[in-house]
Amino acid sequence: MRNFFLFVLLINLLALAYQSWILEPAVSVAPDFAAQDVPELLQVEREKDGPAAVPVPMQAPPIQAPAVPEVAPAATVQAAAPPEAQPQLPGTAAVYRCVRIGPFAQEKDVQSVQTELQGQGATVQRSAEAGRVWLGYWVQSATYPSRQAAEAARKKLIAKDMPDVYVIAEASEYRVSLGVFRLRSSAEQVVARAQKLGFSTRTIERFQPGTNFWLLAKTTGDPAVLKDAVPNVAGQIVRSQKVDCSANGI
Q1: Cβ count within 10 A of residue 103
Q2: Which of 60, 85, 133, 211 makes a 20 to 30 Å CA pair with 200?
Q3: What is the pLDDT of residues 174-231, one digit of tens each?
Q4: Which DSSP category does 85 fall into?
C-alpha cells in the first residue's frame, strides 16, 4: 500500500516537472490585426447584356466636418460717399453773326432768298433803299458816226433773225442795243451771234432809278454759309458783308 502511494506521488511530481519545465506557460495574447497583402474589395458594374465595366475602387464617403454656424464679423457699414459735384461751367451765350446781303432789284427775288435763309434757321430782316436798280447785262454794238449808219446796222440784224434791237443815242454817238439780259450766259450767246455776223459789241451793266432790297441775316453759323446759300439771282451779282448785329437792331 505504501508502495502504491509512493508510485502515485512520483507520477504527480513528474507531471508537475513536465508542465513547468517542458510545456510553454499559458500567456494571454491580445488580438492583433496585421496588414494583409490582399487587393481591396472592388465593385464591378456590368452593363446589361454587355461586357463587364472597368472595376471602380470603392471609396469611403467623405468625412464631413460638423457644421459650424457662421458668425458675421462685426463691421461698421459706411454709406458710400456721394460723388463730388462737378463745378458747372458758366453758361456761354450763343455767338451770333450777321451779314448783309443784296441788293435785289425785284421783290420776288428777295422774297425767295429770304425764305431759303429762314429755312436754314437764320433770323432774317428785309430793308429797302432808294437808288439805282440793277437791270442786267446790256449788249450794244460799236458806235456809228450817224443815226443813218446805226439804222442800217439795225435792219441787217433784224434780217438775221435778231428782232429785239433798236438804235440808242449817247451824246453824238449812236449804237444799236442788242438786249438787256439778267443772265451773263444769255448775254454771251448774243455777243457770239453778233460777232459771227461781223458786228463789234460791248457789254455793260444797266441801271435805272428805283428801289433796292437788302436782307440782314442773323445766325450762329458761319456767315460764309449764308453767302454760299444765296443763289446768283437771275444772273445778278449779289454782294454780302459782315455787319454788327446790335448796331443793326437784330
Answers
A1: 22
A2: 133
A3: 999 999 998 889 999 999 999 999 999 999 999 999 999 999 998 876 655 555 556 5
A4: P
